[in-house]
Amino acid sequence: MKQPVSIRLTQCAKSFENGTRALQPLDLEIRPGETLVLLGPSGCGKTTTLRMIAGLEFPDQGGRVMFGDDDVTDLPIEKRGVGMVFQNYALFPNMTVGENIAYGMKIRKIAAQERAERVEKLLEMVHLQGLSHRRVDQLSGGQKQRVALARALAVEPKVLLLDEPLTALDAKLREAVRSDLNQLLRKLGITAVYVTHDQGEAMALGDRIVVMERGKISQIGSPQDIYYCPANAFVAEFIGAMNQVDGIAGGGRLQLPAGSLPLPDNVADGQPATAMFRPEDVQVLEAEDAAGDTLRGTIVNTFFMGDRTRFEIDIGVGRPVIVETSKRGLWQPGQGVALNVPAAALVKVPAGKEAS
Ligand SMILES: Nc1ncnc2c1ncn2[C@@H]1O[C@H](COP(=O)(O)OP(=O)(O)OP(=O)(O)O)[C@@H](O)[C@H]1O
Protein backbone atom coordinates (compact mmCIF):
# COMPACT_ATOMS: atom_id res chain seq x y z
CA MET A 1 0.00 0.00 0.00
CA LYS A 2 1.15 3.52 -0.76
CA GLN A 3 1.83 6.13 1.92
CA PRO A 4 -1.57 7.49 2.93
CA VAL A 5 -2.26 11.08 1.90
CA SER A 6 -4.13 13.91 3.55
CA ILE A 7 -7.06 15.58 1.81
CA ARG A 8 -7.69 19.28 2.24
CA LEU A 9 -10.69 21.23 1.03
CA THR A 10 -10.45 25.00 1.30
CA GLN A 11 -13.37 27.30 0.70
CA CYS A 12 -15.16 24.66 -1.35
CA ALA A 13 -18.66 25.94 -2.13
CA LYS A 14 -21.03 24.41 -4.65
CA SER A 15 -23.99 25.90 -6.46
CA PHE A 16 -25.75 23.97 -9.20
CA GLU A 17 -27.03 25.46 -12.44
CA ASN A 18 -30.62 25.35 -11.22
CA GLY A 19 -29.64 27.70 -8.40
CA THR A 20 -29.44 25.11 -5.60
CA ARG A 21 -26.68 26.04 -3.17
CA ALA A 22 -25.59 22.56 -2.06
CA LEU A 23 -22.54 23.68 -0.08
CA GLN A 24 -21.54 26.85 1.70
CA PRO A 25 -17.78 27.58 1.52
CA LEU A 26 -16.36 24.63 3.40
CA ASP A 27 -12.94 23.96 4.94
CA LEU A 28 -12.11 20.38 5.82
CA GLU A 29 -8.89 18.52 6.52
CA ILE A 30 -8.81 14.72 6.39
CA ARG A 31 -5.75 13.17 8.02
CA PRO A 32 -3.58 10.62 6.26
CA GLY A 33 -4.92 7.12 6.90
CA GLU A 34 -8.06 8.11 8.79
CA THR A 35 -11.62 7.11 8.01
CA LEU A 36 -13.69 10.26 8.00
CA VAL A 37 -17.46 9.86 7.92
CA LEU A 38 -19.73 12.54 6.44
CA LEU A 39 -23.02 12.25 8.30
CA GLY A 40 -26.22 14.24 8.06
CA PRO A 41 -29.82 14.27 6.91
CA SER A 42 -30.85 13.94 3.30
CA GLY A 43 -29.84 16.92 1.18
CA CYS A 44 -27.24 18.35 3.61
CA GLY A 45 -24.44 18.11 1.04
CA LYS A 46 -22.61 14.88 1.97
CA THR A 47 -22.59 13.37 -1.50
CA THR A 48 -21.66 16.67 -3.12
CA THR A 49 -18.65 16.92 -0.78
CA LEU A 50 -17.61 13.35 -1.60
CA ARG A 51 -18.05 13.91 -5.33
CA MET A 52 -15.89 17.01 -5.07
CA ILE A 53 -13.12 14.94 -3.49
CA ALA A 54 -13.61 12.33 -6.21
CA GLY A 55 -13.42 14.79 -9.11
CA LEU A 56 -17.02 14.15 -10.17
CA GLU A 57 -18.01 17.68 -9.16
CA PHE A 58 -15.87 20.80 -9.07
CA PRO A 59 -16.01 23.54 -6.45
CA ASP A 60 -17.24 27.00 -7.36
CA GLN A 61 -14.64 29.63 -8.15
CA GLY A 62 -12.04 29.95 -5.38
CA GLY A 63 -12.38 26.47 -3.85
CA ARG A 64 -9.34 24.16 -3.74
CA VAL A 65 -8.92 20.42 -3.25
CA MET A 66 -5.48 19.13 -2.24
CA PHE A 67 -4.29 15.53 -1.92
CA GLY A 68 -1.14 15.87 0.19
CA ASP A 69 0.91 18.53 -1.61
CA ASP A 70 -0.85 17.99 -4.94
CA ASP A 71 -3.48 20.44 -6.05
CA VAL A 72 -6.12 18.22 -7.70
CA THR A 73 -8.83 20.88 -7.94
CA ASP A 74 -9.04 20.79 -11.73
CA LEU A 75 -8.27 17.10 -12.24
CA PRO A 76 -11.03 14.73 -13.37
CA ILE A 77 -11.69 11.52 -11.43
CA GLU A 78 -9.43 9.29 -13.54
CA LYS A 79 -6.42 11.48 -12.77
CA ARG A 80 -6.92 11.65 -9.01
CA GLY A 81 -6.11 8.09 -7.94
CA VAL A 82 -9.34 7.49 -6.05
CA GLY A 83 -11.27 4.26 -5.59
CA MET A 84 -15.04 4.58 -5.27
CA VAL A 85 -17.74 2.34 -3.86
CA PHE A 86 -21.38 3.22 -4.47
CA GLN A 87 -24.65 2.22 -2.85
CA ASN A 88 -25.84 0.39 -5.98
CA TYR A 89 -22.51 -1.49 -6.49
CA ALA A 90 -22.11 -0.23 -10.11
CA LEU A 91 -20.60 -3.57 -11.16
CA PHE A 92 -20.62 -4.95 -14.71
CA PRO A 93 -23.36 -7.59 -14.45
CA ASN A 94 -22.25 -9.69 -17.41
CA MET A 95 -18.69 -10.05 -16.16
CA THR A 96 -17.33 -12.46 -13.59
CA VAL A 97 -16.18 -11.39 -10.15
CA GLY A 98 -12.54 -11.63 -11.25
CA GLU A 99 -13.14 -9.63 -14.42
CA ASN A 100 -14.90 -6.91 -12.46
CA ILE A 101 -12.04 -6.63 -9.98
CA ALA A 102 -9.41 -6.68 -12.73
CA TYR A 103 -11.18 -4.15 -14.96
CA GLY A 104 -9.40 -1.03 -13.71
CA MET A 105 -6.04 -2.78 -13.76
CA LYS A 106 -6.61 -3.84 -17.37
CA ILE A 107 -7.34 -0.26 -18.38
CA ARG A 108 -4.12 0.77 -16.66
CA LYS A 109 -2.33 -1.92 -18.69
CA ILE A 110 -1.14 -3.91 -15.71
CA ALA A 111 0.22 -7.27 -16.93
CA ALA A 112 -2.10 -10.30 -16.86
CA GLN A 113 0.03 -12.21 -14.37
CA GLU A 114 0.07 -9.38 -11.87
CA ARG A 115 -3.66 -8.78 -12.39
CA ALA A 116 -4.42 -12.39 -11.56
CA GLU A 117 -2.26 -12.29 -8.45
CA ARG A 118 -3.86 -9.09 -7.19
CA VAL A 119 -7.36 -10.42 -7.84
CA GLU A 120 -6.60 -13.49 -5.71
CA LYS A 121 -5.21 -11.34 -2.89
CA LEU A 122 -8.17 -8.99 -2.99
CA LEU A 123 -10.68 -11.83 -3.00
CA GLU A 124 -9.05 -13.16 0.12
CA MET A 125 -9.11 -9.72 1.70
CA VAL A 126 -12.86 -9.36 1.20
CA HIS A 127 -13.58 -13.00 2.10
CA LEU A 128 -14.66 -14.12 -1.36
CA GLN A 129 -12.00 -16.76 -2.06
CA GLY A 130 -12.95 -19.17 -4.81
CA LEU A 131 -15.60 -16.93 -6.35
CA SER A 132 -13.44 -15.38 -9.07
CA HIS A 133 -15.29 -17.14 -11.90
CA ARG A 134 -18.80 -16.57 -10.59
CA ARG A 135 -20.94 -14.16 -12.57
CA VAL A 136 -21.73 -11.04 -10.60
CA ASP A 137 -25.49 -11.37 -11.13
CA GLN A 138 -25.34 -14.65 -9.22
CA LEU A 139 -24.10 -13.00 -6.03
CA SER A 140 -25.95 -11.77 -2.96
CA GLY A 141 -26.02 -8.04 -2.18
CA GLY A 142 -23.34 -8.40 0.49
CA GLN A 143 -21.08 -10.32 -1.89
CA LYS A 144 -21.61 -7.74 -4.62
CA GLN A 145 -20.58 -4.96 -2.28
CA ARG A 146 -17.44 -6.90 -1.34
CA VAL A 147 -16.61 -7.20 -5.06
CA ALA A 148 -17.17 -3.47 -5.49
CA LEU A 149 -14.79 -2.83 -2.61
CA ALA A 150 -12.15 -5.18 -4.05
CA ARG A 151 -12.51 -3.48 -7.44
CA ALA A 152 -12.05 -0.04 -5.87
CA LEU A 153 -8.91 -1.22 -4.04
CA ALA A 154 -7.47 -3.08 -7.04
CA VAL A 155 -5.96 0.03 -8.58
CA GLU A 156 -4.23 0.87 -5.29
CA PRO A 157 -5.93 4.24 -4.91
CA LYS A 158 -4.52 7.04 -2.77
CA VAL A 159 -7.96 7.60 -1.36
CA LEU A 160 -11.01 5.37 -0.91
CA LEU A 161 -14.42 7.01 -1.23
CA LEU A 162 -17.57 5.21 -0.14
CA ASP A 163 -21.06 6.58 -0.79
CA GLU A 164 -23.64 4.85 1.41
CA PRO A 165 -22.15 1.45 0.52
CA LEU A 166 -24.27 -0.55 2.97
CA THR A 167 -27.65 1.09 2.49
CA ALA A 168 -28.97 -1.50 0.03
CA LEU A 169 -28.19 -4.42 2.36
CA ASP A 170 -30.58 -5.85 4.92
CA ALA A 171 -29.89 -5.17 8.60
CA LYS A 172 -28.06 -8.39 9.44
CA LEU A 173 -25.85 -8.31 6.36
CA ARG A 174 -25.16 -4.63 6.85
CA GLU A 175 -23.71 -5.37 10.25
CA ALA A 176 -21.54 -8.19 8.94
CA VAL A 177 -20.14 -6.17 6.03
CA ARG A 178 -19.70 -3.16 8.31
CA SER A 179 -17.60 -5.18 10.70
CA ASP A 180 -15.40 -6.53 7.87
CA LEU A 181 -15.09 -3.07 6.39
CA ASN A 182 -14.03 -1.69 9.75
CA GLN A 183 -11.23 -4.24 10.07
CA LEU A 184 -10.16 -3.76 6.47
CA LEU A 185 -9.96 0.03 6.70
CA ARG A 186 -7.85 -0.24 9.86
CA LYS A 187 -5.59 -2.85 8.30
CA LEU A 188 -5.08 -0.95 5.05
CA GLY A 189 -4.56 2.40 6.74
CA ILE A 190 -5.86 4.09 3.59
CA THR A 191 -7.37 7.58 3.77
CA ALA A 192 -11.09 6.94 3.42
CA VAL A 193 -14.16 9.16 3.24
CA TYR A 194 -17.46 7.50 3.95
CA VAL A 195 -20.90 9.03 3.39
CA THR A 196 -23.88 7.84 5.37
CA HIS A 197 -27.07 9.10 6.98
CA ASP A 198 -26.93 6.21 9.48
CA GLN A 199 -25.45 7.33 12.76
CA GLY A 200 -24.77 3.77 13.96
CA GLU A 201 -22.63 3.20 10.89
CA ALA A 202 -20.89 6.54 11.38
CA MET A 203 -20.06 5.73 15.01
CA ALA A 204 -18.83 2.24 14.17
CA LEU A 205 -16.63 3.20 11.24
CA GLY A 206 -15.43 6.74 11.69
CA ASP A 207 -12.17 7.77 13.31
CA ARG A 208 -13.83 11.15 13.08
CA ILE A 209 -17.30 12.19 12.05
CA VAL A 210 -18.33 15.37 10.25
CA VAL A 211 -21.95 16.21 10.99
CA MET A 212 -23.40 18.33 8.20
CA GLU A 213 -26.54 20.39 8.09
CA ARG A 214 -27.83 22.40 5.14
CA GLY A 215 -24.54 22.63 3.27
CA LYS A 216 -22.46 23.44 6.34
CA ILE A 217 -20.34 21.57 8.85
CA SER A 218 -22.04 21.52 12.24
CA GLN A 219 -19.30 19.63 14.07
CA ILE A 220 -16.18 17.55 13.47
CA GLY A 221 -15.00 15.15 16.14
CA SER A 222 -14.50 11.60 17.32
CA PRO A 223 -17.69 9.54 17.72
CA GLN A 224 -17.42 10.06 21.49
CA ASP A 225 -17.05 13.85 21.11
CA ILE A 226 -20.06 14.04 18.88
CA TYR A 227 -22.20 11.89 21.16
CA TYR A 228 -21.21 13.30 24.54
CA CYS A 229 -20.27 16.90 23.64
CA PRO A 230 -22.51 17.96 20.76
CA ALA A 231 -21.61 21.41 19.47
CA ASN A 232 -25.20 22.52 19.08
CA ALA A 233 -28.80 21.42 19.46
CA PHE A 234 -28.95 20.08 15.90
CA VAL A 235 -26.08 17.64 16.51
CA ALA A 236 -27.46 16.73 19.94
CA GLU A 237 -30.80 15.75 18.45
CA PHE A 238 -29.51 14.21 15.24
CA ILE A 239 -27.13 11.79 16.96
CA GLY A 240 -28.94 9.29 19.13
CA ALA A 241 -32.16 10.14 20.93
CA MET A 242 -32.08 13.14 23.23
CA ASN A 243 -34.50 14.36 25.87
CA GLN A 244 -34.92 18.09 26.05
CA VAL A 245 -36.93 19.40 28.99
CA ASP A 246 -37.65 23.10 29.50
CA GLY A 247 -38.41 24.56 32.93
CA ILE A 248 -37.54 27.37 35.32
CA ALA A 249 -34.45 27.48 37.52
CA GLY A 250 -35.12 27.48 41.23
CA GLY A 251 -33.01 26.49 44.23
CA GLY A 252 -30.21 25.15 42.00
CA ARG A 253 -32.57 22.75 40.20
CA LEU A 254 -34.75 22.86 37.11
CA GLN A 255 -38.27 23.17 38.44
CA LEU A 256 -41.05 21.33 36.62
CA PRO A 257 -44.73 20.75 37.40
CA ALA A 258 -44.04 17.21 38.64
CA GLY A 259 -40.72 17.61 40.47
CA SER A 260 -37.27 18.79 39.45
CA LEU A 261 -34.18 17.89 37.44
CA PRO A 262 -30.55 18.93 37.83
CA LEU A 263 -29.65 22.23 36.18
CA PRO A 264 -27.09 22.25 33.39
CA ASP A 265 -25.41 25.54 34.37
CA ASN A 266 -25.55 28.28 36.94
CA VAL A 267 -28.87 29.75 35.96
CA ALA A 268 -30.32 32.41 38.24
CA ASP A 269 -33.53 31.53 40.04
CA GLY A 270 -36.60 32.40 38.01
CA GLN A 271 -34.81 32.15 34.63
CA PRO A 272 -35.86 29.65 31.94
CA ALA A 273 -33.46 26.73 31.40
CA THR A 274 -33.29 23.43 29.53
CA ALA A 275 -32.01 20.02 30.61
CA MET A 276 -30.81 17.65 27.87
CA PHE A 277 -30.04 14.00 28.59
CA ARG A 278 -29.85 10.65 26.83
CA PRO A 279 -32.53 7.96 27.28
CA GLU A 280 -30.00 5.43 28.56
CA ASP A 281 -28.88 7.76 31.37
CA VAL A 282 -32.23 7.92 33.16
CA GLN A 283 -32.99 5.60 36.02
CA VAL A 284 -36.65 4.74 36.58
CA LEU A 285 -37.74 4.06 40.18
CA GLU A 286 -40.92 3.04 41.93
CA ALA A 287 -42.68 6.31 42.74
CA GLU A 288 -42.77 5.52 46.47
CA ASP A 289 -38.99 4.82 46.61
CA ALA A 290 -38.12 8.31 45.41
CA ALA A 291 -37.12 11.33 47.49
CA GLY A 292 -39.44 14.35 47.79
CA ASP A 293 -38.62 16.48 44.75
CA THR A 294 -37.64 13.66 42.37
CA LEU A 295 -39.34 14.08 39.03
CA ARG A 296 -42.53 12.01 38.74
CA GLY A 297 -44.29 10.77 35.66
CA THR A 298 -46.63 8.21 34.17
CA ILE A 299 -45.59 5.52 31.70
CA VAL A 300 -47.51 6.18 28.49
CA ASN A 301 -45.87 3.74 26.09
CA THR A 302 -43.44 0.84 26.14
CA PHE A 303 -41.52 -0.58 23.17
CA PHE A 304 -39.74 -3.88 23.54
CA MET A 305 -36.71 -3.74 21.24
CA GLY A 306 -35.08 -7.08 22.05
CA ASP A 307 -31.82 -5.98 23.63
CA ARG A 308 -33.53 -3.11 25.44
CA THR A 309 -36.89 -1.59 26.23
CA ARG A 310 -37.91 1.99 25.54
CA PHE A 311 -40.39 3.78 27.77
CA GLU A 312 -42.16 7.04 27.10
CA ILE A 313 -42.98 8.83 30.32
CA ASP A 314 -45.37 11.77 30.59
CA ILE A 315 -44.00 14.36 33.03
CA GLY A 316 -46.70 16.94 32.36
CA VAL A 317 -44.73 19.21 30.00
CA GLY A 318 -46.02 18.06 26.61
CA ARG A 319 -43.26 15.98 25.05
CA PRO A 320 -42.73 12.73 27.00
CA VAL A 321 -39.32 11.77 28.39
CA ILE A 322 -37.77 8.78 26.62
CA VAL A 323 -35.98 6.21 28.73
CA GLU A 324 -34.15 3.12 27.55
CA THR A 325 -32.98 0.25 29.68
CA SER A 326 -31.53 -3.16 29.04
CA LYS A 327 -33.24 -4.47 32.16
CA ARG A 328 -36.19 -6.72 31.51
CA GLY A 329 -39.40 -4.69 31.17
CA LEU A 330 -40.80 -3.78 34.54
CA TRP A 331 -43.14 -0.94 33.83
CA GLN A 332 -46.56 -0.92 32.25
CA PRO A 333 -48.53 1.92 30.63
CA GLY A 334 -50.50 3.83 33.24
CA GLN A 335 -48.01 3.13 36.01
CA GLY A 336 -46.68 6.06 38.07
CA VAL A 337 -42.87 6.19 38.36
CA ALA A 338 -40.05 8.51 39.44
CA LEU A 339 -37.12 9.50 37.24
CA ASN A 340 -33.58 9.90 38.48
CA VAL A 341 -31.30 11.88 36.14
CA PRO A 342 -27.78 12.28 37.56
CA ALA A 343 -26.27 15.75 37.11
CA ALA A 344 -23.29 14.14 35.31
CA ALA A 345 -25.65 12.83 32.63
CA LEU A 346 -26.66 16.27 31.43
CA VAL A 347 -25.46 17.04 27.92
CA LYS A 348 -24.20 20.58 27.67
CA VAL A 349 -24.68 22.43 24.44
CA PRO A 350 -22.68 25.66 24.16
CA ALA A 351 -24.94 28.68 24.55
CA GLY A 352 -25.76 30.70 21.46
CA LYS A 353 -25.21 27.77 19.12
CA GLU A 354 -28.75 26.44 19.09
CA ALA A 355 -29.85 25.02 15.77
CA SER A 356 -32.17 27.43 14.04
N1 LIG B 1 -26.75 17.82 -9.97
C1 LIG B 1 -27.51 18.55 -9.15
N2 LIG B 1 -28.26 19.56 -9.61
C2 LIG B 1 -29.01 20.33 -8.78
N3 LIG B 1 -29.08 20.13 -7.44
C3 LIG B 1 -28.37 19.13 -6.92
C4 LIG B 1 -27.54 18.28 -7.74
N4 LIG B 1 -26.94 17.37 -6.92
C5 LIG B 1 -27.37 17.64 -5.67
N5 LIG B 1 -28.22 18.70 -5.67
C6 LIG B 1 -28.87 19.31 -4.49
O1 LIG B 1 -27.85 19.71 -3.60
C7 LIG B 1 -28.22 19.46 -2.24
C8 LIG B 1 -27.21 18.55 -1.59
O2 LIG B 1 -27.28 17.29 -2.22
P1 LIG B 1 -26.38 16.04 -1.77
O3 LIG B 1 -26.69 14.92 -2.71
O4 LIG B 1 -24.98 16.46 -1.62
O5 LIG B 1 -26.98 15.73 -0.34
P2 LIG B 1 -26.80 14.45 0.59
O6 LIG B 1 -26.54 14.98 1.93
O7 LIG B 1 -25.81 13.53 0.00
O8 LIG B 1 -28.26 13.83 0.52
P3 LIG B 1 -28.75 12.30 0.38
O9 LIG B 1 -28.44 11.64 1.67
O10 LIG B 1 -30.21 12.45 0.12
O11 LIG B 1 -27.98 11.74 -0.79
C9 LIG B 1 -29.62 18.90 -2.30
O12 LIG B 1 -30.51 19.95 -2.12
C10 LIG B 1 -29.72 18.33 -3.70
O13 LIG B 1 -31.04 18.32 -4.14
TrEMBL record:
InterPro entries: AAA+_ATPase, ABC_SmlMolc_Importer, ABC_transporter-like_ATP-bd, ABC_transporter-like_CS, Mo/tungstate-bd_C_term_dom, P-loop_NTPase, Transp-assoc_OB_typ2. Keywords: ATP-binding, Cell membrane, Membrane, Nucleotide-binding, Transport. One of its GO terms (molecular function) is ATP binding. Residues 7-239 form the ABC transporter domain. The keyword Signal does not apply. It holds the Pfam family TOBE_2. SMART domains: AAA. PANTHER family: SPERMIDINE/PUTRESCINE IMPORT ATP-BINDING PROTEIN POTA, SPERMIDINE_PUTRESCINE IMPORT ATP-BINDING PROTEIN POTA. This is ABC transporter ATP-binding protein. It comes from Herbaspirillum chlorophenolicum.
